Amino acid sequence: MTELVLGPREAGAVDARLAQAALLDLAMEEAGAAVAAAARNYPDGPVLLLAGGGANGGDALVAARHLHVQGREVTVLAAPPTHELARLNRRRLRAVGVSIRFLTPEAVQRFARGAALLVDGLLGTGFRPPLRPPLATLIEAVNAAGCPVLSIDLPSGLDALSAEAPLPAVQADSTVTLMGWKPALLFGTAAARAGRVTLAPLTVPPGWVHEAALAGRPADAEVGALLPRRQPDAHKGTAGHVWVLGGHPGTTGAPAMTGVGALRAGAGLVSVHSLADIPLVMPELMIRRHRSWASAFSTMESQRPDAVVVGMGLGPQAAEVARRVLSWEVPTVLDADALQPELAGLGHASCLWTPHPGEAARLLNTSTAELTRHPLDAARALQQRLGGVVVFKGGPSVVAHEGGLSVARGGHPGMASAGMGDTLSGVLGALLGQGLLPWAAAVAGVRLHARAGERAAATHGYGLSASDVAQELGGAWRDLRGPS
Ligand SMILES: NC(=O)C1=CN([C@@H]2O[C@H](COP(=O)(O)OP(=O)(O)OC[C@H]3O[C@@H](n4cnc5c(N)ncnc54)[C@H](O)[C@@H]3O)[C@@H](O)[C@H]2O)[C@@H](O)CC1
């Protein structure tokens, strides 16, 4: 027999591979333990675990072992393993005395009867649509099982990167997602499939985190820490002067709403500049009506605000007005009519662009459907095209800046109503005016607005208006920042 002798380089490569395999094994062990812990939130009784052939199935096998060792009755239905760690965890499961049955729709139907919980480990991030037929029948059997379903990483049948839920896909009651949030768990019809989602971070090297999970999702405490804190001797001059440029005959309410949003988000002074008669919805607003934008700019030249919000209801001259504002190089929010493709690349680092999907489609020359299907990609593409910071508005909104992506928490479906974006742009302007960096203003402003929406919805439900939301901004600030 010849002895195999490895040189130092080959031995090093073998060591590195072994270390990688050990880390992956550890990650799967942590994933399975997190799933077993989540299963304990459901009532006592037998647990039916379904394991696909890949690593998602491997997680289910680990969870089964943990539950069994903790004294829970488990039934495991597994597909033939295609992943090395799924194979290893089958052996470990058998070693502790659990038998593994063949995974068929009939077996799912049979063992689901009397189960307190079904754990779905059929498909995770390795799934790429379209679904092949045997899996489609299994997913239908899961949805017909009649007991609560806990999905591992994401409900089987969802494409981790897409906000669309194809049929069939598992309808889960809860999901334990691993390492980070996937777009499918955050947006659109897909998110509705996941039920209540909890995150198990896992101790994996940063490079292993799935590309879909790279977006941050700051908690309220982190957002609250971004909000400015005032000194006791603060006065209106230290809380920022915000200029709102917008309005046009017929669209006069929009800049008024922006002004109110800015006041309610703490701006010291708010001036609304317009060629139209802007309703004085709050007497604290300083309304400046101009004959033309040329004369407006000549009177504005001698002063500079702390922040500008431009575009709401501004009409056909919006691009021209916005271009002039950009030349001032003060922190600027570009909204609504100011979101014109011809302005792409003309902004500066303190610009905050706030497109909704329709405006984003115009800016990127694509369809709204394509953008809402892949909101993270859309936000990234908008930031690359426009520069500065982008708030891609939606439920939820995504903030894109040079440092990455951040997905907002919360909000309420009742916020899908007129004037909501105008209020948000005012909030963003107020935070810029109070000295926040554009990305911090965006992350904090979007959450502040969403929190105010949640508060207003408690009273008004789907009937809430942008004015109701503006009224709750002070309370939302207190919720996030604390009483100071
Ligand atoms: N990446 C990591 O570091 C970790 C990943 N983990 C788990 O690994 C999962 C990803 O594992 P895999 O990459 O093995 O993939 P999955 O286990 O998600 O999917 C692979 C399986 O799905 C089948 N499949 C794929 N496309 C299909 C289609 N169109 N129709 C029918 N069947 C299809 C494949 O034949 C294979 O059996 C994650 O979701 C997570 O659950 C965890 O173990 C923790 C660590």
Automatic annotation (TrEMBL):
<comment type="function">
    <text>Bifunctional enzyme that catalyzes the epimerization of the S- and R-forms of NAD(P)HX and the dehydration of the S-form of NAD(P)HX at the expense of ADP, which is converted to AMP. This allows the repair of both epimers of NAD(P)HX, a damaged form of NAD(P)H that is a result of enzymatic or heat-dependent hydration.</text>
</comment>
<feature type="binding site">
    <location>
        <begin position="393"/>
        <end position="397"/>
    </location>
    <ligand>
        <name>AMP</name>
    </ligand>
</feature>
<comment type="similarity">
    <text>Belongs to the NnrD/CARKD family.</text>
</comment>
<dbReference type="InterPro" id="IPR029056">
    <property type="entry name" value="Ribokinase-like"/>
</dbReference>
<keyword id="KW-0413">Isomerase</keyword>
<comment type="similarity">
    <text>In the C-terminal section; belongs to the NnrD/CARKD family.</text>
</comment>
<comment type="subunit">
    <text>Homotetramer.</text>
</comment>
<dbReference type="Pfam" id="PF01256">
    <property type="entry name" value="Carb_kinase"/>
</dbReference>
<keyword id="KW-0547">Nucleotide-binding</keyword>
<feature type="binding site">
    <location>
        <position position="56"/>
    </location>
    <ligand>
        <name>K(+)</name>
    </ligand>
</feature>
<dbReference type="InterPro" id="IPR036652">
    <property type="entry name" value="YjeF_N_dom_sf"/>
</dbReference>
<dbReference type="InterPro" id="IPR004443">
    <property type="entry name" value="YjeF_N_dom"/>
</dbReference>
<feature type="binding site">
    <location>
        <position position="156"/>
    </location>
    <ligand>
        <name>K(+)</name>
    </ligand>
</feature>
<feature type="domain" description="YjeF C-terminal">
    <location>
        <begin position="219"/>
        <end position="480"/>
    </location>
</feature>
<feature type="domain" description="YjeF N-terminal">
    <location>
        <begin position="11"/>
        <end position="210"/>
    </location>
</feature>
<dbReference type="Pfam" id="PF03853">
    <property type="entry name" value="YjeF_N"/>
</dbReference>
<feature type="binding site">
    <location>
        <position position="120"/>
    </location>
    <ligand>
        <name>K(+)</name>
    </ligand>
</feature>
<comment type="function">
    <text>Catalyzes the dehydration of the S-form of NAD(P)HX at the expense of ADP, which is converted to AMP. Together with NAD(P)HX epimerase, which catalyzes the epimerization of the S- and R-forms, the enzyme allows the repair of both epimers of NAD(P)HX, a damaged form of NAD(P)H that is a result of enzymatic or heat-dependent hydration.</text>
</comment>
<protein>
    <recommendedName>
        <fullName>Bifunctional NAD(P)H-hydrate repair enzyme</fullName>
        <ecNumber>4.2.1.136</ecNumber>
        <ecNumber>5.1.99.6</ecNumber>
    </recommendedName>
</protein>
<keyword id="KW-0521">NADP</keyword>
<keyword id="KW-0520">NAD</keyword>
<keyword id="KW-0630">Potassium</keyword>
<dbReference type="InterPro" id="IPR017953">
    <property type="entry name" value="Carbohydrate_kinase_pred_CS"/>
</dbReference>
<feature type="binding site">
    <location>
        <position position="313"/>
    </location>
    <ligand>
        <name>(6S)-NADPHX</name>
    </ligand>
</feature>
<dbReference type="InterPro" id="IPR030677">
    <property type="entry name" value="Nnr"/>
</dbReference>
<keyword id="KW-0067">ATP-binding</keyword>
<feature type="binding site">
    <location>
        <position position="254"/>
    </location>
    <ligand>
        <name>(6S)-NADPHX</name>
    </ligand>
</feature>
<feature type="binding site">
    <location>
        <position position="153"/>
    </location>
    <ligand>
        <name>(6S)-NADPHX</name>
    </ligand>
</feature>
<feature type="binding site">
    <location>
        <begin position="55"/>
        <end position="59"/>
    </location>
    <ligand>
        <name>(6S)-NADPHX</name>
    </ligand>
</feature>
<dbReference type="InterPro" id="IPR000631">
    <property type="entry name" value="CARKD"/>
</dbReference>
<feature type="binding site">
    <location>
        <position position="421"/>
    </location>
    <ligand>
        <name>AMP</name>
    </ligand>
</feature>
<feature type="binding site">
    <location>
        <begin position="124"/>
        <end position="130"/>
    </location>
    <ligand>
        <name>(6S)-NADPHX</name>
    </ligand>
</feature>
<keyword id="KW-0456">Lyase</keyword>
<keyword id="KW-0511">Multifunctional enzyme</keyword>
<feature type="binding site">
    <location>
        <position position="356"/>
    </location>
    <ligand>
        <name>(6S)-NADPHX</name>
    </ligand>
</feature>
<keyword id="KW-0479">Metal-binding</keyword>
<feature type="binding site">
    <location>
        <position position="422"/>
    </location>
    <ligand>
        <name>(6S)-NADPHX</name>
    </ligand>
</feature>
